[in-house]
Amino acid sequence: MSKINEATYFLSDRVKNIIDKIDKDYKEMINEIRIRNNNPIAVKLKDKILYVTENSKLVFNFNDRLVRVTQDEMDESFNRLCKFSVYSYLNDIRNGFITLNGGHRVGFCATAVRDNDDVLSLKDISSFNIRISREFNNCSDKIFDCMMNNGFGNVLIVGQPSSGKTTLLRDIARLLSNNRFNVCVVDERQELFSKNCNYDKGYNTDVFLSYPKHTGIQTAIRTMSPDYIITDEICEEKECEAICNALNSGVKFALSIHAQSIDELKNKYIFRRIIETASFDYIVLLQGKDNPGEIKQIMSSNEVLHNNINTYCFSA
Predict the structure, then answer these.
(1) What is the pLDDT of residues 36-77, one digit of tens each?
(2) 193, 224 in Cβ contact below 8 A?
(3) Fold of 141-315
(4) Contact at 8 Å (CB) between 136 and 37?
C-alpha cells in the first residue's frame, strides 16, 4: 500500500478515490493534505500548495472544477478515522490529532462537546490536516559525520513545524543503533516508529510507544540502560526535568524543539533549562518547512549562547 493510501484510507469514498487517482509521481512528493469543509482540497509538495480537481489533476489556481468536501463527508471521514467509536479515541481527540499506522498524523478542527473543561466528543468537523510520514535513510549523514569526527555527544534539532525534524531523528536512531549504541526511542505520538510501520530502526533500538515523554525517559533509564534516548518536540517542564535527570546520569540525547531561528531558540525557557544541565555538542538548525530536512547550520550550544557561531561542522 502506498503512503498516500495509508494516510487517506478513512476519507469518504468519493474523496479517497479522487486522491488515489492523482498521478503517482506527484503523490510521492505530497507532504500534507488539507481538507476543509466546503473548500478546495489543498496538497503541499515541498514549497508549493496545489489544489485537486474533480479529475484528480493538481493545479495552482482556483477554478470551478476543484474538489469540495461536504459537511456530511467530513463527518463520515471523522467517524471512520475513529473506527466509529469516538469515545475510544478521546485522549487523541483532546490532543487534536490521531496517529495512523505508518506514522501518518491526522489533525482536525471541530466544535467541541464539553462538560465544563472536559472535551467529551466533537461535532461539525471543519478541517483535516493529514501529514504524510516517510522514511529517508541517510538523510542525517551530515549530522552523523559530525558526530563521528568530533565525538558522539548530545544532539538538538531545531526547526519550525514540517521542517523535517522527525525524519532526521528517525534516521539518527537507525545510524546510532547500527553503530553499536543502545538506543531507546520514546515515541509519545507514534510518529517516529509507529506500531505497524516497517521503518528501519537499526539493530539495537528499543521503542516506547505512546508513553508520555517524561515517563518514557524515566522508564528507559530504569529498564533498558540506553546509551542514547531519542524523542521528539520537547515543550514541557516535566519533559525537561526528566531529560536533565537523565543527562546527569550519563545518558545522551538526540532531541528536537520548535524554533525558526537561533534568536527564538535562545529565548525558549526549555532550551535554557536543558543547557543548564549539559552542553549540547550539536545544535542543528534546519532551513524550514519549504525545504524539509535541509540543514542550515550545525553549531554547539556554547556557540549559540555566546553568539560565536562558526558552524564548525557544516553550514549550507
Answers:
(1) 999 999 999 877 899 999 999 999 988 879 999 999 999 999
(2) no
(3) Rossmann fold (3.40.50)
(4) no
Q: Please report the pLDDT score of residue 59 as a whole number.
A: 95
| Pairwise CA distance, residues 298 & 231, whole Å | 19
Q: Alpha-carbon distance 108 to 176, whole Å?
A: 35
What pLDDT sits at residue 1?
66
Q: How confident is the model at residue 288 (pLDDT cuts 50, 70, 90)?
A: confident
Instruction: Report pTM.
Output: 0.85
Distance of alpha carbon 307 from alpha carbon 309, whole angstroms: 6
Assign domain 3-131 to a CATH class: alpha beta
Q: Which residues belong to CATH 3.30.450 in the chain?
A: 3-131
Phi, psi of 292 (to 5 degrees): -60, 135
Cell of 85: 467509536
The answer to whether the beta carbons of residues 234 and 242 sit under 8 Å apart is no
Secondary structure in 3-state letters for 35-90: EEECCECEEEECCEEEEEECCCCEECCCCCCECEECHHHHHHHHHHHCCCCHHHHH
